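Hey, resending since the last one bounced:
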Amino acid sequence: MEDINMTIYRIIHEESYLTFEIPTGEVLKKLGREYPFHIKRSPVPYSAVWKPLTIRFKATESRAKNIPDIAARNGRLFFNEKAYKALSGLLAQAGEFLPVNFDESHGYLFNPLRTAEEVDGVDRRLTAYDANQNLVNIAFDESKVGGFPIFRTELDTFQGIFCNEAFAEAYRQSKLTGIFLHSDLSNPLGESYGVKH
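The structure tokens again:
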């Protein structure tokens, strides 16, 4: 029987909510060219040089109108104050919370710093590529990565965000909005391919 505490999920942005955008001009003005946070997804800490950026929210789908509690994009998460209060304690050792401003409000970008590779947590037997070397299946050794509430992997150039059951349960219990958790770790869309056109 599978241990429920070892379940790993992929965090997917719920497209019925707005997602965040980090303006290039803000990064250049406040962090400089040597810290391209908006385009570089590597698990590198920024807190020592961070100056709160002003971010924007935009729709990925025409019906999206509201800013969520949490938004996922390019290997990073946005947290509003409510989400930060609910989950920051759980995530303190998994990355860094970087303050941001938006629409006369305040929030945080969460920069996940833990990786599957640092604990040899990629299951190489089940991770697969097609004939053109495109990644078609991601698998982790849950006994190694299961202790990370949130982590990323070099397999997808740190774009995906993955979580354990502890994070999933805390998210559900907090009744937060903006993301959903999918058990198909290889699917960045969170739905069956071909369902939407």
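The first helix runs from residue 24 to 30.

Sorry for the duplicate.
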